[in-house]
Amino acid sequence: MALSKLDNLYRQVVLDHAMHPHHHGSLKRADHQMEIRNPTCGDVLNVEVALKDGKVSEIAFSGSGCTISQASASMMTDEVIGKTPAQISQMVETFSEMVIGNPPADYEKLLGDAAILEGVAKFPARIKCATLAWKAVYQAVGNENGEASAGIMRHEQL
C-alpha cells in the first residue's frame, strides 16, 4: 500500500474514533475512577472502570481534549475490556514505548487497533495527548502490584 494511502487510513481511523468515540460517557457503577489532566494542552479525561472476576467488565471515559487524546481514549477502552490490571500495565508500557518510537516486537498483537497510533512518534508534542487515557486507566485499576490510585492527577506526575 502506498504511503499516502496509509496516511489517509491513519487519519480516517483517528478521526472516526475522535468523532464517534467508543465507550464515551459514564458508568452506573464504577469500581475505579481516575481523572487526569494534561496541563500542556488542556486535555481532561475521566476514566471509570468496573471490574468483575479481576478483569475489566465495563469502561467509560468522558472529558474534553484534542482529536488524538479522544481517539486514543476510544481505542484504549476497546482494547482493555476483559483484561486484568497486570495485562493493562503491560499494555500501557507497550503503548508508551510505541508512541516514543520504540515499539516492542509484539506491540501490534498486544495493542490491537490502538497500534495505529504509532504515527504519533512523528509528532512529539502529541505524545502526552496520546498517552493520557492509557495513564488514566493504569492509575484507575492499579499497576501490576494491584495498587490503584484515586482522584485527580496531572499528566506530568506520571
Describe the structure in your own words.
The chain contains 5 helices and 4 strands, in the order H-E-E-E-H-H-H-H-E. The protein has a single domain, classed as Sufe protein. Chain: A (Alpha-Beta Complex), CATH 3.90.1010. The model has no long low-confidence stretch (mean pLDDT 86). A hairpin with a 2-residue loop joins strand 2 (43-52) and strand 3. Helix content is 42%, strand content 20%. It has a 4-stranded mixed beta sheet, with helices on one face. The chain is an alpha+beta fold and 158 residues long. The chain is globular and about 40 Å long. Residues 10-129 form the NIF system FeS cluster assembly NifU N-terminal domain. InterPro entries: NIF_FeS_clus_asmbl_NifU_N (IPR002871). This is NIF system FeS cluster assembly NifU N-terminal domain-containing protein.
Quick take:
One of its GO terms (molecular function) is iron ion binding. The chain has 158 residues and is an alpha+beta fold. The protein is 42% helix and 20% strand.
SSE map:
Layout: H1 3-19, E1 32-38, E2 43-52, E3 55-64, H2 67-80, H3 85-99, H4 107-111, H5 127-141, E4 151-154
Parallel strand pairs: 1-4
Antiparallel strand pairs: 1-2, 2-3
Domain NIF system FeS cluster assembly NifU N-terminal: 10-129
GO molecular function, one term: iron-sulfur cluster binding
GO biological process, one term: iron-sulfur cluster assembly
